[in-house]
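Q: Could you fold this chain for me?
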Amino acid sequence: MIYIYFFIIILFQSCSVIIPLKDLPTPNGNYIIGTDIMILEDQNRLETFTKTIDDNRKIVVQVWYPATSKSDSLYPYLDYKDIKVPYIAKRLEISEKIVNHVNKIKANSYYQATPSTDEFPLIIFSHGLGGNRMQNTINIESLVSNGYIVFSIEHTYDANITVFNDSTFAEFDSYLPDDVSVEEFYNVRIPQIKVRANDVSFLIDKIETLKSQNHYLGRMSNMNSIGVFGHSFGGGTAALSSALDNRIKACITLDGWFEPIPPNILNKGINIPFLFIGQPQEEWITAPYNNQQLTTFHDNNTNDSFIIEIKNTKHMDYSDISYITIWSRFLGLSGKDGRNINLDLNTTIVNFFNYYFKKQEVDWLLDIRNNYDIINRSKRKI
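A: Sure. Below is the predicted structure, expressed as C-alpha cells.
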C-alpha cells in the first residue's frame, strides 16, 4: 500500500494549476545554502531491478551544504523538467502545462554556491517509496542553514523517476499488489530495503573517499557525526542502515515504514539515539502491523529511544506537501494540524541532532509538545 506515495506525489504536482502552491519557507538558520548533484556508480554491486548483465547500481545524490556566498541561480524544486514533465503527464494522461506549474515553486538553495571551509555534522536523507530526493527539502534546508551538510539519495527504481546527467532515466519499478501473501511481501520488500541500506553505506564510503582526496564535500563532512533520517520507506531505510552501519550515530524516522525491516534486525534493535515521529499508529494504512514492528524495534533499542505520535496528522504531513498547498487537507493528504507541522518538525529535527552531535542542552520536543496533542511512548523522559 505504501506505493500510493508515488501517485500522491504526481497528483500533487498535476493539480498545481487549480490548487495554489506556496514557495518553501525561508530557513531560520544563519548559513546560506548551496547545493549540487552527484551521480554515483557502485562498481561492486549489480543492479537488482534490471536484467541487463553487468549493470551496476547507480544513484543520484543531491547535497545541500553551508555556503559563504550565493551563486547566480537558485536550484529548481522540479529539476530536469523537460524529462519529468512529459513523463508525469503521460503517466496521468493530462496536459504537460498542468504538471509544469510545479516548477514555479521556489526553494532557498543556490546551485554550486561557494562552500564554507568549516566542518559540519553529516546527515543522510532517504525518501519514501515512489518519492524523490527533494520531497523533504523544507527539513533539509532547515538543517543546512543551522550548520549541517545533508546528502539526499534518490533510490533508483524506488523513486518516481530518476534522471541521470546524460538524460537517461529510470522509472518507478517497485509496485507490489495489495493482495500478496506475507511470504511474497517479504521476498520482495526485504531485498529492496537492503538495497536502499546499501545505498546509504555506499554513499558514506564515497564521502570518506572525497575526504581523503581533500574534496570540498569531504572536507566539510564530520565523519564522526553521521546521522540519518527518512520518510516512510525511507524511515525504515534509516533504521535498517543504523543497524547495519556502525558509522551512523543517530537516527530519525518520519512516520517510518517498519514492516519491510528483517525480523532479526527488529529483534536486536540499535544502540544509537533513535526518534520515530509520525501520525498515530492506529491511523497507519497497514495498522496494526507497522506499530507491532516499530514497537519491537523500539523495545530492543539499547540507547535513547523515542516514539512520538502526533494526533490530527497524516502520513504526508511529514513531507513538503502539506506546507506547499493549502488544499492538501481537502485532498486527504494532511490532517487537521498538518499545515503547521513542517516548521515545528524543523525545530525538532535540528535540535535532536544538535543535542546528540553538538552537545547542546536543548528541549528538542518543546514546540511539538506545546503545539500538538501527542502520544509519547519513549524510553527516556524528555
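A (continued): DSSP finds twelve helices and 13 strands in the chain.
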